[in-house]
Design goal:
Layout (H helix, E strand, L loop, with lengths): L1 H9 L3 H13 L3 H17 L3 H17 L3 H17 L10 E5 L6 H4 L8 E4 L1 H14 L14 H35 L7 H14 L5 H8 L5 H12 L7 H14 L3 H17 L8 H36 L2
Antiparallel strand pairs: 1-2
Helix pairs in contact: 2-3, 2-4, 3-4, 3-5, 4-5, 4-7, 5-8, 8-9, 9-10, 10-12, 11-12, 11-13, 12-13
Protein name: Protein GET4 isoform X4
Organism: Nicotiana tabacum (Common tobacco)
Amino acid sequence: MFRERVRRVILPPAQENIDKLEKVIKEGNYYGAQQMYKSTSARYVSAERYSDALNVLQSGACLQLDKAQITCGAELSLLFAETLAKAKVSYDEDTLAAGTCERCGQTKERCGSPFPAEFFGLYGAKETRDRVRKIYKKFPRLSVPQHLDLADDDDLQKLSEAIAAAKTRVEGCSSFLKAAIKWSAEFGAHRYGSPELHDMLADYMYSESPEVDIGKVSFHFVRGRNPKKFASALVNFMGKCYPGEDDLAIVRAILMYLSLGNLRDANKLMDEVKMEVELKNLNFPSSELTQFVNYLLLTYLMKLQRSSMAFDVEILSRGLEISSR
């Protein structure tokens, strides 16, 4: 216990290290700063000063991404998300977990910690989500150069470099958000993780991937809460995919929603796709697959209505039975 107290005392406040490392970044020593960010945050984690570790990692991730050091920024972002899980920070969309001990997660009264009050941080759910969102928004959004002459070696080199950079950005952001989703699933109320984080990941993967894998994008959209944006992505994809794949993308999305028991968003997605197609003067893909999924949605809806009617009849009969006694 005495050693633990000493170890906590000799570690300076996080802001001192943040200021020092920011100077290293400004000097252009990105690799040196990266190693210092990792070692400094690791010392705070070892001392179970998670709030300080998170502050250092967030600062480093944002600064590295601001300087277009994507690999470094992504690595620190990933460590930030993993530290949230190590610290057992709760993910709750409605409440705040205030005044919790950084060592055990209990309130100060229940913990009985000998450490002073400043060791008890404020782990606000909204504040933590805002910090994740802040890091996410630092990941660049750059379009791949268009209208290049592929017969020209310089243009071909530019295109190749742009595609490689885009893949690096998507992989880095995906690793960060997947770790954040895993944390939100483990310490939050949603079985599949935060819908908001799924929406963020789906949007970044779709908008920034040089070669969109609509199946992977759909996986996250259906676990999110934005079927309207999902519909817009599907309609946009319909203009880029191989002939005959447009109906497959729509049907797969509907079936993925239904497999999660989400009939509401399955119907909303279909409605939004049809509206988007009409607004853009496009043709909705009419095939046996789309007809099948339309009938499937109708069947689910009828089944739900019958279940509701049966429930109402049961309630009514019970009411009549009670009143007749």
